[in-house]
Design brief:
Elements: E1 26-27, E2 31-33, E3 44-49, E4 64-67, E5 73-77, E6 86-90, E7 98-108, E8 115-122, H1 123-135, H2 142-148, H3 163-176, H4 182-195, H5 206-216, E9 219-224, E10 232-238, E11 241-245, E12 259-263, E13 274-284, E14 290-298, E15 323-328, E16 336-345, E17 348-349, H6 352-365, H7 370-391, E18 392-394, E19 400-402, E20 410-412, E21 424-427, E22 432-442, E23 457-463, H8 464-474, H9 478-482
Antiparallel strand pairs: 1-7, 2-4, 3-7, 4-5, 5-6, 7-8, 9-10, 9-12, 10-11, 11-14, 12-13, 13-14, 15-16, 15-21, 16-20, 17-19, 18-19, 20-23, 21-22, 22-23
């Protein structure tokens, strides 16, 4: 066998041809393997460690490496030796507990102790291209194949705009496959490969901020008279009409009329906002924890003009992973916006198959590798199934609606805090109110689950469609009375 060496790139005489080799790290465990070459002199597939390859180095045949917990050394174990010959190399990267999500060819340079790394390829695509010929006739993989074909062949990460579609089609393949079959094992492996193959792009186009800015200003602080800070939030949805959570007034003697609604509270010192009295509690729900407040006069004498009321996004119900943001007053602070939130559990799902996908997705999220998942799946799948079947209740036809603890809800994951109760939750695509933030639900999720079992911990959002449905029934003219607009 020719001698294979890991590339030393810190000023040593080594050749390396790698495009953007350190651009896309993704988390894995602390151990990784380097397969031995199948025959002398042939290219091999090599897993490349995370970090700046230009700061790493070794000169030896590589079989595998491990990383100590300090993250300061890498141990390379040498093949073809009976002794435990381990070389420790000091390295510069701050963390070595990740692998880039692609593979490369490693070839011995003739007459030199050098390995040339070429042809970086995303692991997800490598696996799919090697397996697709035997599964393409299987209908379970048809949707996955269609979306994979949208990925550029030379891509080193999965484009962000394809993430939801690829994840959904992969989970569908897992659900539709026979448990513990080779097809299901392949789909599970593909799931974890695609999970570490995203760019992690959380950038938001500036145009979103331009459109969202005026919408966020419809949020107001709910402020008890005489209190130094607000204790809740609300949103203007009509002409001098504020929607908020009814529980914001549960501890206030005299209720809503002993509070004010403060708009434009942006700064503790220079802009304390414009204060409006609450003239009337127009409607209070006995079941959904919301109320409508009719505003009175402004009492701060700033001649403040109320913003254009937010529009209500009653249809369609948002699907899982759809983007949301929340505007409110967390912990009594000036107006703040929680960005990059997502719908975790939609209020409405189409059928039993959708339920199975949510269950499977929740179990997959508990673990970071195929091996962990397959070792624990049979223990935890029944517990998670119990949580979802207890939370999603049958609706019209074959559909279900999310009602954890019997309360209609959208499960979401924005970064919100006490004081955000009653905040508007906006659809990032349409800048419309899709719900009212009620609070966090902390359930045991159905039993003793591992630390990654966050399926039972989410922010509970009252769906605006349910609020509108009750108001249309109890106050049929409410929309025209206050010029409320829906999309």
């Amino acid at each position: 066998m020719g001698k294979f060496s890991f590339v030393r790139l810190a000023g040593l005489n080594v050749l390396c041809v790698v495009a953007a080799a350190h651009a896309q790290p993704a988390t894995v465990g602390t151990n990784a393997s380097f397969p031995a070459p199948s025959k002398s002199g042939s290219p091999v597939i090599l897993h490349a460690p995370k970090g700046d390859l230009g700061k790493m180095g070794a000169s030896m045949d590589i079989e595998q490496f491990t990383v100590d917990r300090s993250g300061k050394t890498v141990s390379f174990q040498l093949p073809n030796t009976n002794s435990t010959q381990v070389e420790q190399i000091k390295v510069a990267p701050t963390s070595l507990e990740s692998n880039v999500p692609y593979r490369m060819h490693a070839e011995k340079v003739p007459n030199q102790d050098v390995v040339r790394l070429t042809d970086p390829r995303m692991e997800f695509l490598v696996k799919w291209n090697g397996a697709k010929d035997r599964v393409l006739t299987d209908q379970k993989f048809t949707a996955l194949n269609a979306v994979v074909n949208k990925i550029p062949p030379k891509a080193l990460s999965i484009p962000a705009d394809l993430r939801q579609e690829i994840q959904s089609s992969t989970v569908s393949a897992i659900v539709d496959s026979t448990p513990n079959s080779p097809e299901q094992s392949l789909a599970v492996e593909l799931y974890y490969l695609q999970e570490k193959s995203y760019t992690g792009d959380q950038q938001i186009p500036y145009s979103v901020f331009e459109k969202a800015g005026p919408t966020c200003l419809t949020a107001c602080a709910i402020w008890a008279k005489g209190s130094p800070n607000p204790h809740g939030s609300g949103v203007l949805i009509g002409e001098k009409l504020v929607l908020t959570c009814a529980h914001n007034f549960a501890q206030i003697q005299g209720g809503a009329l002993q509070c004010d609604a403060v708009f434009n509270f942006k700064d503790e010192v220079q802009n304390r906002g414009a204060t409006f009295t609450i003239a009337q509690e127009f409607y209070k729900s006995n079941t959904l924890d919301f109320c409508l407040l009719k505003l009175g006069d402004e009492v701060t004498n700033t001649n403040f003009q109320l913003p254009v009321a937010a529009k209500l996004g009653t249809r369609p119900e948002l699907a899982r992973n759809e983007g949301i943001y929340v505007a409110g007053h967390p912990q009594g602070r000036p107006l703040s916006v929680a960005l990059n939130g997502q719908v975790v559990y939609p209020f409405w799902i189409e059928n039993d198959q959708s339920m199975k996908k949510l269950v499977q997705w929740a179990v997959l999220r508990m673990f970071s590798s195929q091996a962990e998942y397959e070792a624990n799946r049979d223990n935890f799948l029944p517990l998670v199934t119990q949580f979802f079947t207890g939370s999603y209740k049958p609706d019209i036809g074959s559909s279900f609606r999310f009602r954890p603890l019997g309360f209609p809800a959208i499960g979401a994951d924005p970064d919100t805090k006490q004081g955000d109760s009653g905040s508007p939750v906006f659809d990032i695509k349409r800048n419309s109110v899709i719900g009212l933030l009620r609070g966090a639900l902390n359930s045991d999720g159905g039993g003793d689950l591992p630390g990654g079992a966050n399926h039972a911990y989410f922010e509970l959002v009252i769906p605006i469609s349910e609020i509108v449905r009750e108001l249309n029934d109890k106050k049929p003219t409410w929309k025209t009375d206050f010029n409320v607009q829906s999309l």
